[in-house]
Amino acid sequence: MTVEIKVPAMGxxxxxxxxxxxxxxxxxxxxxxxxxxxxxxDKVTVEVPSPTDGAIESISAQAGATVQVGALLxxxxxxxxxxxxAAAPKAEAPKPAAPAPAPAAPKADAQKSESLxxxxxxxxxxxxxxxxxxxxxHRQGRAASPRATC
Length: 150
Fold this sequence. Notes:
Layout: E1 2-6, E2 16-22, E3 29-30, E4 35-40, E5 45-49, E6 54-59, E7 66-68, E8 72-78, E9 100-101, H1 104-112, E10 127-128, H2 130-139
Parallel strand pairs: 9-10
Antiparallel strand pairs: 1-8, 2-4, 2-7, 3-6, 4-5, 6-8
Helix pairs in contact: 1-2
């Protein structure tokens, strides 16, 4: 079944629009509510969404053309697959082994020549902060830096 793409009503004082650009070409696959083209008026710029899933069957008005409200812009062959390649299945992203340390944390830890592994229990939103390192040192009975505020 063919579904028509028409210029939508944009307000009572707007009677015509100019097609600024098409986002799709003939034969491209589209999904419902996917932007097809952009219309410009003297008051507003509007993206025209796809009314249904399918493939662009025809384009009646090219970019740069001035069209009236309700005019035919093109047609979509409902349910047909277009020339767009099918989406490849997404591979799972590898999970990080440990939270990334904040910039000050490695410096503070390097001063004590100890690994950040002890501060992992203090991770704040997946980040090891400078204060986490100092709290960890304090619990272990080591002297903290005089600049530590925690």
